[in-house]
Amino acid sequence: MRRLTWRAAELVRIVSETATARTLRFRVPGWPGHLAGQHVDVRLTAEDGYSTQRSYSLAAPPDGDLVELTVETVPDGEVSPYLNEVLEVGDQVELRGPVGGWFVWRPENKARVLLVGGGSGIVPLMAMIRARRQAGSSVPFSLLYSLRDADRRYYADELSRPEPGLDVTYLYTRDAPPGSSRAVGRIMLDDLAEGGWPAHFEPDCYVCGPTGFVEASADLLLALGHAPERIRTERFGPTGG
User: Fold this and answer.
1) What is the rounded distance in angstroms from the CA atom of residue 160 to the CA atom of residue 49?
2) Residues 188-220 pLDDT 10s
3) CATH of domain 6-99
4) How far apart are CA 82 and CA 80, in angstroms?
């Protein structure tokens, strides 16, 4: 097993996603590559030697020594406010990874894909969508993206562009934009039945988001007849940010 080591990572680009989230592109010399769906550890070290770290999903497929993360600021957090409000192009942090081998999508996989994301859980799912595009894959993808309101959409411009074989459905829980036909509310059985793939198509299902969202979505997928071994989940909860 390859031993993971900490690597210096220089911030080379910043893209604002929402009022509280931004995508950070780092150059990491010697980066070994990664799979869509994996994550990395980010470590910050103060001048007095104090250090702290958090895990973040990779937001894009491998691109040489470039690594992208999308970070949501956690109120009263320790790491995310620094990454989003202090870190500037040219600054450095340390990265370790990639981590994880279960919640991943590989371009050679030919099964249909159902992606179910809640809030910032869209990040590793977006990496899979981008990996599909990068590989020129024709595997059908369906994305159900649950979020409070339209102002919290990550990758809004990119996901609004038509892409053959990719269907995107937004599920708003608090405030829906004008013209939305679905009533606001949490993800329901009908959402997955109408916006996803039927179980007899045997799609690979990836669910990512807060723990409650992931558990509810997985239960709904099971109720629709999806095989447990085809449902892969990644959840996050309070970590101090």
Assistant:
1) 44
2) 999 999 999 999 999 999 999 999 999 999 999
3) 2.40.30.10
4) 5
Q: What is the DSSP string of 94-116?
A: EEEEEE-SSS-B-TT--S-EEEE
Residue closest to 57 by CA, chosen among 82, 32, 24: 24
Task: Assign domain 113-236 to its CATH architecture.
Answer: 3-Layer(aba) Sandwich (3.40)
Is the overall model pTM greater than 0.90, yes or no?
Answer: yes
Burial class of residue 90 (count of CB atoms within 10 Å of its CB; 0-12, 13-18, 19+): exposed
**CA distances (Å), 5 to each of 20, 55, 57, in order?**
30, 14, 17
Residue closest to 207 by CA, chosen among 236, 180, 183: 236
Beta carbons of 40 and 95 less than 8 angstroms apart: yes
Domain boundaries, the chain: 6-99, 113-236
Distance CA 7, CA 15 (A): 22
Average pLDDT of the segment spanning 19-35: 97
Question: CA 117: distance to chain centroid?
Answer: 8
pLDDT at 75: 87
Measure CA 53 to chain center. Answer: 19
Dihedral class, residue 155 (left if φ above 0, else alpha if ψ from -120 to 50, else beta): left
Paired with 72 in beta bridges are: 21
